[in-house]
Amino acid sequence: ALLVESGAKPAVIRNARKELGRLKRTPPPVDGVESAVATFYGFFAVEEPSVVVQRLRQALEEDGLVLGSVSVASEGYNGALAVPVERRAQLAQTLSTAAPELWPTEEDAIKALNWDAQPTRSSPFHRLLVKEKKRALVDGFDEPLDWDDCGAEVPPEAWHDEIAAPGATVLDVRNTYESDAGTFAGAVPLNTSTFVESWPKLDEALADRPRDEPVHMFCTGGVRCVKAGAYVKQKLGFSDVRRLEHGVVAYERWAEGSGESRFEGENFVFDKRVDAAAGPMVDEDLNPRPTDRPP
Asked: I need a surface site. Which of 25, 33, 95, 178 has the fewest CB within 10 A?
């Protein structure tokens, strides 16, 4: 219903209905097993993604208790996984051992994992998908931009203060159905149905802004802001782009501990979770996903 009301494209609605229908036919996970959910991404050259996928899939399947999805491409990776809470500490070791091309050390994997603030009552995912993709995050570009040149990450505490400044430009680069569920006070939504629609929306939102003015942007877990930030810097010429570090997911963790929040409403996700704690939702996840997950 949210997708229809937000004016999402028919293809997006069809994919969502198809996925929801599949979920209704899927037996629910065992109740009583709390799951910890982490999202993660990285953009750098990956040699032979198919080989990485094969090793990573085998390791996660052998574990037997990991559910979710991971996409690996020549430009990087993007994923979300759920594990029983008591096995949370083991996930980083499994990832780094199976795919050192993505996480050279266990510490690298630990830093990459963006854990939800609270565990879920059961796994939000019903299967494990590890696939090679053309893009870690679908963007619609024929040629990729320099994803390293995407602006500075701003930790949640500093973000909380910066977006409160009078006249701050804050862009919500999520889709309409996400923005409608909840967003930061004063944020400007792009009103997109899919991420690939972001580019003309960014052109429009920033058309009259001075190129040296700070541009703050956020998404659910941070992955979309890498590409949106690169576009704003390299194509639109803005010199000061600031991205919320690890997205709304990390801000929720910080807000829970601080008792403060400028986020109004719920953090929308489309990954079978019934609560608002979630990882990165990216539109192409609807076909099908994780948020979430990788396209």
From this structure: 25
